[in-house]
Amino acid sequence: MDATEPYYLSSGDEVAVFEQCHARSLAVMLKGPTGCGKTRFVEYMAWRLGRPLVTISCHDDLTASDLVGRFLIRHDGTAWQDGPLTRAVREGAICYLDEVVEARQDTVVVLHPLTDHRRMLPIDKTGETVPAAPGFQLVVSYNPGYQRMLKDMKPSTRQRFVALDFMFPPPERETAIVEREGGIGHAMARGLVDLGLRLRGLQDRGLAEVPSTRLLIAAARLIGSGIPVQQACYAAIVSPLSDEPSLVAAMRDLVAATFV
Ligand SMILES: Nc1ncnc2c1ncn2[C@@H]1O[C@H](COP(=O)(O)OP(=O)(O)OP(=O)(O)O)[C@@H](O)[C@H]1O
Ligand SMILES: [Mg+2]
Description:
alpha/beta; binds adenosine-5'-triphosphate
């Protein structure tokens, strides 16, 4: 396990709530927009709780076998190989399923017996039932974005999790994060955060994805490496967010107004 503490600046009581969930064997769902610190939070909590972290990125081709394991054919016969979920269950790890809505329902149901009083993983193909080792915890992340209207989790899945809501941190905290992660001075970090706040205001005007802390950090890194501020903001923030000429123009104006 990585011995160095991941940098995570909290904005509320999420650390305490997560610790209580861990102590009480409750599964956790992290809800929030892209780039707002969910993954970093899980890395930090795994470090803080002294548990290994197993991360699984979900996608629509992910099968139950990808999670649980499969028989491999070898020269001397077949051998069972645990999947990442099974490994996490045996090791008492924190198992983090990123973007869980991307996984199909028939894949997600294998999580169910782990999230209620049973706390075990039945492996159909071997007949084994693996009890979750102490410290095992299931964490999923979920980005309730605009494109998710049709794609959602079943109530029988959702209701197995304690949900923690993530949002962009308040400006002073976001400034501290951009300063530290982006490696730039306080005043410039504050300027980027102010730009971020202004751009987030464009959501009402049709900007589907608003700039995340991650994008502000990317701009900070470019600025730190000597790229002129407006150019860095355009490349790292404006252009990734939209292709629509009127929105791009509106964003460029805000960049110019912020960094005169
Ligand atoms: N509270 C925070 N403390 C420290 N760093 C943060 C925080 N929030 C965001 N960051 C920074 O922003 C970056 C993006 O955060 P992270 O990868 O955790 O986002 P995410 O919510 O998991 O996004 P996605 O939904 O796209 O996976 C991190 O690499 C980190 O540099
Ligand atoms: Mg993430």
